[in-house]
């Protein structure tokens, strides 16, 4: 048997070799880190199925002694939870659609259109990302009050529809797109509006999904701004509505109901991430190598 034949026979044996110690260590480390993030969520779900007495037991038990599925219906009916849920859907949905539209249009303009001071305007737009939101709260509140939008869902939607981060994300992605299709459409007489709607938008679907998921998550979980702007119970969103559960029993906070309501509020986010995960990962990966 020649040396070449021996090498060919030995090659499959080397390929069957198990994972190296470094690979196993990486998997173990990733598993431990994942458990750190999953543990609070698992504790919330298990606590939502406990009774009030079990919540306050010390030392606490991991599994409930009696699985109280009725906590979910009780949490749903204790307050206008359906109204909180609908308000959050309206605010997050409209804000996400508006942010995607305005950011994609602005990103396309900064990436493709040429006008005096374009780069300076873009840098100034990005500079607003360095201003902490607490600094902007008072001016924003004054603007909303002058527009008679205090205690309305519009006061939560309008600030979220315009985002410098989304514009930056769109611009970086569009810069890396080939210009041949746009040039061909321009030769055929298409204007910037038609090129944007029919050519650019279909090409930037991954980054649209990325921006949409981030914007939806941010607006869905936003607490401070709705707490400042919303006064009436019927206009509260879920994060502010969860705070109202503490007033149900002044003597003892109903943590089992709060945990059940919190679990219900997370379900749309999980569903959205599962549906858009493919586009989300693809958009992050492609945006990282653009322009």
CATH superfamily of the largest domain: MetI-like
CATH topology of the largest domain: MetI-like fold
Largest sheet geometry: none
Uncertain stretches? none
CATH architecture of the largest domain: Orthogonal Bundle
Roughly what is the average pLDDT, rounded to an integer? 85
* E-strand count: 0
Our count of domains comes out at 2
Query: Structural class of the helix and strand makeup?
Result: mainly alpha
The Rg value, from CA coordinates, equals 26 Å
Percent of sequence in beta strands:
under 5%
The top-level CATH class of the largest domain is Mainly Alpha
Shape: globular
Membrane topology: Multi-pass membrane protein
Protein name: Carbohydrate ABC transporter membrane protein 2, CUT1 family
Organism: Jiangella alkaliphila
Pfam families: BPD_transp_1
Describe the protein:
This protein is mainly α and about 290 residues long. It has helices at about 5-15, 20-45, 50-55, 70-80, 80-110, 120-125, 135-145, 155-160, 165-175, 180-185, 190-205, 205-220, 225-230, 240-245, 255-290. The longest helix is centred in the last third of the chain and has 34 residues, at about 255-290. Its main location: membrane. Pfam families: BPD_transp_1 (PF00528).
What is the topology?
Blueprint lengths: L2 H13 L5 H27 L4 H4 L14 H9 L2 H32 L5 H10 L5 H14 L7 H7 L3 H12 L4 H8 L4 H12 L1 H17 L2 H6 L8 H6 L11 H34 L3
Helix pairs in contact: 2-15, 4-15, 5-8, 5-9, 5-12, 10-11, 12-15
Membrane topology: Multi-pass membrane protein
Pfam family, one: BPD_transp_1
Subcellular location: Cell membrane
